[in-house]
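Standup notes
- DV: blocked on the single-chain target, sequence here:
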Amino acid sequence: MIKQTKAQGLSMSTIVLAVLALVVLVILILIFTGKLGRTGQGIDTTRDQYTGQNCEIPGTPRTCRIGGLDECRRQGGTVYSGATCPAGGVCCSV
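- DV (later): unblocked, structure below
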């Protein structure tokens, strides 16, 4: 008698899942090796624009006032002495 054995095979869903996992892995490798350096440089450039030394920072109530200290205080604001205004004046938070 000849003994017959049945072959074990991978299901189609297992093969598709393995191919998708490989594609995702390749994409992640490309992102982290090729783009990570450029992304870090972009973050540094953006961060430098919005440090505490600049007066007008988006999301804060600070604005440059040409009128000076009296104008800022008359409107109930606080003067930031450490921040600079590109057009002159004082940095005021109202």
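- Follow-up: The mean pLDDT is 77.
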